[in-house]
Amino acid sequence: MKKIALVSHGCAKNLVDSELILGLLAQNGYEITLNEDETDTVIVNTCSFICDAERESIRSILELIDKGKKVIVTGCLSQKHPEELKEEIPEIKAVVGTTDFTKIIEVLKKIDKEYVCEVSEKPEYIYPENIERQQITMGASSYIKIADGCNYRCGYCVIPYLRGNYHSRKIEDIVEEAKKLVKKGVTEIILVAQDTTGYGIDIYKKPMLSKLLEELNTIEGLGWIRVMYAYPTQMSDELLNTIARLDKVVKYVDIPLQHSHPEMLKMMNRPSFDYRPMIENIRKRIPNVSIRTAFIVGYPGETEEHFEHLCNFVRDMKFDRMGVFTYSREKGTPSYKMPNRVPAKIAKQRYKKLMEIQQEISIERNKKFIGKTIPCIIECSSDEGEVIARTQYDAPEIDGVVNIQTDKMVVPGDIEMVKITGSSEYDLTGEIS
């Protein structure tokens, strides 16, 4: 039996693709491993969202080639630079595009005889429902991709060109996958797509995220449902009321806004309106909601006035969680040829300032949890007896954790009531009685 290793880079959506590749390998009788030292053939599923992600993927490929491995490159980097990859790294055995990974078995059969390039010129991502994912991370949480591709053309983003237009999955297929995950011991499912709030428009002719949440909420044994990557124009009252009403849907809204100034939003090809009433509406309709957002600083044309507008917006809105990115110039995006580029040094200064503003807000918001007893999902426990958990207000790997001291035996995936005893900028401490 041939053993294949896989290395996965990038976002949660890419992780799902990696798990689908592993599922396809398993279905076809391959033995799979995540330890590249156990085999001579390695698939590297790459990310190409920004330059740093590309560099990390390329470093990984080169290290494996140095070890004498046969390397197959899949994912966004293959889709973006198929010819350049082969030119620059001739040792690569094959490149496979973002929507071509279902051909991986055919590719594996050919690589000993010839170099293989399976990259669709016009990618269209249709989720392969006939493949059962093989989880790389089996813990308290698991991601479910409800759609892929994107119909928006934001100025900084290369994803639509790498993954094609938006394609939703059917509700029944998503619910079936969620049930399988729960049977495997998953407590929290996290719904991901380029834009989750646009779910269903392409196949049902109207937004159907509310309906999907209703269906998922009926699954026995499922603890939490989390929605990531909402889009500003799709935050309807119906959706907000559904999130507020359903007991398994966590009161957490992830809505990357990217900027606050109307001129900047227009230059970014983003919805250009005052976001304040929308944020206030979210808070009004979902009591005790936690709002996460993300912003880009240093986008071409961003002036000091634009940046100060953003700083004031962040101070006023007091987001519970926030990420900041410095603009990354990507070939093929509308912003690539834009004039008035912001020097890297200034972009870094803006990043630092905005993060400092948010840090103060985060300290104050976390203090409010002290003395409260709240449900937390158990992630893992250390040999020293410390338990790592998360509140419903924190997504895995990007938000904070709760460090718990307890003598009680706890199991990853269990939801325990935790009394919060302390806080820092991003994390909490607590105890289970």
Task: Record keyword descriptors for this entry.
22% strand; Rossmann fold; globular; pyruvate-formate lyase- activating enzyme; five-stranded mixed beta barrel; OB fold (Dihydrolipoamide Acetyltransferase, E2P); 33% helix; six-stranded parallel β-sheet; alpha/beta; 3 domains; 433 residues
Secondary-structure blueprint:
Blueprint: E1 3-8, H1 12-27, E2 31-33, E3 41-46, H2 51-66, E4 70-75, H3 76-80, H4 82-88, E5 94-96, H5 104-110, E6 116-118, E7 141-145, E8 147-148, H6 159-163, E9 167-168, H7 171-183, E10 188-192, H8 201-204, H9 209-216, E11 224-227, H10 237-245, E12 252-254, H11 262-267, H12 276-285, E13 290-297, H13 304-317, E14 321-326, H14 344-367, E15 373-381, E16 386-391, E17 402-405, E18 415-423, E19 428-431
Parallel strand pairs: 1-2, 1-3, 3-4, 4-5, 5-6, 7-10, 10-11, 12-13, 13-14, 17-19
Antiparallel strand pairs: 8-9, 15-16, 15-18, 16-17, 18-19
Summarize the structure.
With 433 residues, the protein is an alpha/beta fold. Helices cover 33% and strands 22% of the residues. It starts with a strand and ends with a strand.
User: Helical residue percent?
Assistant: 25-40%
Distance between the termini: 50 Å
The tally of domains stands at 3
What overall form do the CA principal axes indicate? globular
Q: Strand share of the residues?
A: 15-25%
Report the major sheet.
6 strands, parallel
Weakly predicted, low-confidence segments: none
Briefly note the structural class of the backbone: alpha/beta
Strand order of the largest sheet: 2-1-3-4-5-6
Rounded Rg = 22 Å
CATH fold category name of the largest domain: pyruvate-formate lyase- activating enzyme
Count of extended strands: 19
| The CATH superfamily title of the largest domain | tm_1862 like domain
Supply the number of helical segments: 14
Which class of the largest domain in CATH terms?
Alpha Beta
Instruction: Provide the residue-averaged pLDDT.
Output: 94
Which CATH-level-2 architecture of the largest domain?
A: Alpha-Beta Horseshoe
